[in-house]
Amino acid sequence: QVQLVESGGGLVQPGGSLRLSCAASGFTFSTYPMSWYRQAPGKQRELVATITTSGSSTNYPDSVKGRFTISRDNAKNTVYLQMNMLKPEDTAVYYCNAKRLASAYWGQGTQVTVSS
Q1: Which residues pair with 6 in a beta bridge?
Q2: pLDDT tens digits for 82-95?
Q3: Which residues are paired to 8 by β-bridges?
Q4: CA 21 to chain centre
Q5: What's the burial of 60, exposed, middle or buried (CB within 10 Å: 0-12/13-18/19+)?
Q6: Contact, 5 vs 108, CB < 8 A?
Q7: Residues of the chain predicted below pLDDT 50
Q8: 25-37: string of b/e by CB count within 10 Å (b at 16+)?
Q9: pLDDT at 44
Q10: pLDDT at 111
C-alpha cells in the first residue's frame, strides 16, 4: 500500500521558518522524482519544488526561489522542504507528490499558516 505522510506544518510568524517532511512507503522511493505542491483556499494547487531521483537537481518557481529548499534522503525514504523567510502568502496546505510515468501518488497534506 502506497503512503505519503507529511508532517511539520503549523503556525509561524512572518519571517520564520518551518521544515516539512514526507515519509514514503509502499513503492521504490529512490526511483521517483519528488515534488511539493501547495494549495491556498480558493486557489489552484501550485508546484513549489521538485527534486530528481538522486537529489542532484532541484527546481523552484520564482515565488519561492531563494527561500525554499527541497532535499531527499533515499535511505530514509523521506523528502523534505525547508521553508525560510516565510510570508503570509505562503499560507496553504502543502502536499507531497511522487510521480513517474503514469504513476502518481499524493499525501494527505499538512497545513502551513503564516500569520502574526
Answers
A1: 22
A2: 999 999 999 999 99
A3: none
A4: 7
A5: middle
A6: yes
A7: none
A8: eebebeebbbbbb
A9: 97
A10: 98
